[in-house]
What we know:
Radius of gyration: 30 Å
Distance between the termini: 84 Å
Number of strands: 9
Helix content: 40-55%
Structural class: mainly alpha
Mean pLDDT: 91
Shape: globular
Number of helices: 30
Amino acid sequence: MGSVQIVTTIVAVAITAVxxxxxxxxxxxxxxxxxxxxxxxxxxxxxxxxxKTMLAETAGHTRMLRWSLVGAAHxxxxxxxxxxxxxxxxxxxxxxxxxxxxxxxxGWVLYGLVxxxxxxxxxxxxxLLITIRLRNRPTRPGxxxxxxxxxxxxGYFVEAVILAVLIMGFVIRGFKVATDHFEYxxxxxxxxxxxxxxxxNWAAGVSVAALIKITISMTWLIVIALNVTMGxxxxxxxxxxxxxxxxxxGRKGSGLGxxxxxxxxxxxxxxxxxxxxxxxxxxxxxxxxxxxGLLDFSTCTECGRCQSQCPAWNTGKPLSPKLLVLSLRDxxxxxAPYLLAGGGKDLTGAEKATAAQLAHVDVxxxxxxxxxLVGTAEENGVIDPDVLWSCTTCGACVEQCPVDIEHVDHIxxxxxxxxxxxxxxxxxxxxxxxxxxxxxxxWGAPPNTREDWTKGLDFEVPRVGxxxxxxxxxxxxxxGAFEDRAKKTTRAxxxxxxxxxxxxxxxxxxxxxxxxxxxxIGNEFVFQMLAQQNVEVLNEAFEGREKSxxxxxxxxxxxxxxxxxxxxxxxxxxEVVHHTQLLAHLVSTGKLTPVQPVDGGVTYHDPCYLGRxxxxxxxxxxxxxxxxxxxxxAAGRDGGLxxxxxxxxxxxxxxxxxxxxxxxxxxxxxINVDRVEEAMATGAKTVAVGCPFCSTMxxxxxxxxxxxxxxxxxxxxxxxxxxxxxxxxxxxxxxxPVVG
Length: 740
């Protein structure tokens, strides 16, 4: 060992020892913070499915590859980081000896070939990602960046380190080529040989370059160890457990659909026995999130994909799912010294720690602990109320997050405390909640008018209890029973089912709101009251049937989602289909036959709770395709289905979800107007929907644009009815003003 190797070895060992010590300390701190969260036993179920899902989403990059080029580049960088870590390990042998290498695999040509090409593709990929970050920097002129609010120096630092480590890997190999100590042939390592041709025959060059590579790598480790909130770096370790512990690993897509029930001490809250002084009602303190919630906050990589897809952020609202998560993360870690010292408030607001326990806690941590989780800037609130109430729960953020952060659950948990304990929520939503409690529907319509939509039909609509037998229970829903436009959809569906010979029955006055708007706004008590009533009625209606014969068809995706995904939490197990699914089946089996193509061009708006939340994308399009039948408009253009740029998983919200239907939209551009402009840009004369909320919002947007004579918003069922029975649907044009 020469003098150069002695120095390089000592420096490499010293900097590595410091880096490892700091990294271990950082990991222990992160684990301690995450453990402050509440228990959640559901995260440890079905370990085989969790493992499979985690491997698919990491090794397979199934979520990132939705973004094609970026996803592919990220895959090569990720795999390069894992596999080329062996080259960092090899550098420790090279600082000791210029001819050193990894034992066993070091001279294996296949190892040289794989690491060479991973290095080459990693270089190309990281340069591409750097270019994308620079082109999308928040300071660039024009347009919002998905990186707005991200800590940009951290992103630049991480990418620069990756680039430098990859370059130094080829420099080390180049010096080995120049000194004639390289084991691999040109065909296996072409770039290394090319670099070697440019470097001098300097034996110590290998050890010096290896030390530089180790120094860069350990500097990166030291920096992230000193910045435990540096998600852009830590996510490469935390993504694996965060995906593994996702809420519903077996559910296709993002695991959306049902909300988590209200939990206290890891158990669903029983309102009949709950005590606000002993049981947790929603989330009022950051440590009241589950440990998975705190892991979520730590894992955020600040990529901004959630932000780029959020309807609130895209229309000038203060909500960014990314910034919300980052605010919660920073608050949790700033408050951590206080919590780890034993501090915290019990459910009555009393301090749990003694003065002695808090005596040595940093004053900044004590000050952070006094900040309310939800509050205005004047109150030093972590999350502003306008941020909390801007969410439509559309799920675009959860759908796009590459590390499975569960933004919607966290937002609703905070809403629950605000509504149930603080009684703090937008005033206009109070009318909706009172109507639900007193009338069983959000509009406050008389319950005895629930069957008025049946008047004028040329067939009898049977009621449960009157019909001897029925295949489907037709869940009409509040909008379908009381809102004028939605009633036309209800009549269209009933007519089509009758035409197809499907036996169905309705509950009539026995039906009440499923409770979706109450649950999404955070009033779990009203939701459970309504849900338990409905479960009892439905179980009685289906008495004696096994689950496969407890069939419900619903026209509202919110009812569809609540009945099918959430009533099981309360003992209601049913087979629920959306009307577009049933209609698609009836068309495909020949029970409904379109006879007159609908012309003028049609575009379809995916409802969030039908599409993203429940993965129903194809059936509505199949129905529309059958109804269109390849029609052409008067100008001879293709009058078929015209997709909007944002469709399917990336469909843009109408603005009504999350109980926003009953709240005023006072900040920024109206979400429904943004969506209507996108629909109108397609040139389609008909905007087809599969949700009464979407129908109301998009009709309102069309009217606001003064385009009601040029563009019609109509349900998929009505489009099909016009094709199947054009004479029956001739008077169904929806041109009345919005009701409600």
